[in-house]
Amino acid sequence: MSSALATQPEPALVAKAKALQPRLTNNALLMGACAVLLLGPLAFGAVEPWSIFALEACAMLLLAGWACRQWINREINLSDNPLYRPMAAFFALVVVQWLAGITAYRHVTYSHLLLYAAYGMLVFVVTQTLRRSSQFELLAILFTGYGAVVAAFAVLQGLAPNGKLYWIWAAEQGGSIYGPYVNHNHYAGLMEMLTPFPLVLAATRFTDGNRKLAVAGIAALMAGSIFLSGSRGGMAAFVAQMVVLSVLLVRKREGRWKQPLMLGAFLAVVIILLVWMGGNELTQRLISIHSEAREEISGGVRLTIDRDSLHMLVKRPLLGWGLGAFPIVYPEFRSFYTTFFVNQAHNDYLQLLAETGLAGFSIAVWFLVLVFRHAAGKLENWAGTASGALTMAALLGCVGILVHSFLDFNLQIPANAALFYVLCAIAAAAPLHESQRRRVVRRHHSIEHPSSGAPAS
Prior knowledge:
- By secondary structure, this protein is mainly alpha-helical.
- The protein contains 17 helices and 2 strands.
- The chain has helices at 2-7, 11-42, 49-73, 84-99, 106-129, 134-159, 184-194, 196-203, 209-228, 232-250, 258-297, 301-315, 326-329, 348-376, 386-404, 414-428, 436-448; strands spanning 164-165, 169-170.
- Strands 1-2 form a two-stranded antiparallel ribbon.
- The protein is globular, with a radius of gyration of 24 Å.
- The N and C termini lie far apart (53 Å).
């Protein structure tokens, strides 16, 4: 009898195993969502029908997996996120466009509605599974490693191009290939969202010694590839990100000199890398910004498209022409001659106004206000907590895309749009749960290194 009792698991071990199961399931679902987000860019930005279907199908499977876990556990465990409401309101608006026949092309609006639903599913799964501080380091390391590989590939491709994606597939309609994207501006958009993760890792207590130098070097490579891609919108977006980061560093009361000095050293390394690898080609690209900007102001194509987009808004100011209908409707309002097909407005804000009217734009403003308001509450000690560091990285990525969207159409590229919405949701989410052991370690760290920004107790 004693041997039979000995073989039975102790109640404490059983309870511990049961408590560990939800955590493992959360991590599996979170990694599945990250796999979808990071494989999308490799599929040329998920712009082909097969890759769009794959993104939508995987999002549905992840949501089904989360629902199955709830059913097995016989409980519904939900975490609220302030962005659920504006995202649901925008979804409802597009449904009204489609059902009421307001859209100029019902099929394309329905297709975009399905894609937007996939973004919502990914946001939901990530915000329901990203709850613990330990997951921040897992996420940051994953994004850092992925960004390093993609940036290294893009730089190598830039040094030895043959006009084909992955040196294999020719672009059917041409383009400015860089990395896995046909358009170099969309590659820059991806790097704008990923670069803050190694940069924040290097600026916080989550890395030290040689590891800190390694992630800082990866961040420099990723940032340098934005400039080497030749995307002027990407360059402007990265500068805006660095301005925001500098302001937040200067506002810190403790350790005011150390982290700004590290940021300055990082930017110096980026400049050295650009001078070494970019050479005259990058210099000429930067010099051309002034002359081409002056040409735009005096009647360039992009500003003309902007004016035409406003004329589209005037015709249908409240609900717009239908999500995704811009390229269908635009020829009616085009005020210049061209043999090219204008498929996007090259300004995500004006395209949103034209397609969804003032109603859709108001929802987008509501969405962004919630992002920045809720993120600001977690940035008080961003260098000392996992929640703060994750919020800082996500918010910087969002800032980059929001600036870049004035000049290009990253949010019309499914892979970039999905990652952007997820970063917005992460920035606005509630603080991560920190285990007791990590709180003790952080308190001990703050006592030994009060200049790190963590309050000593």
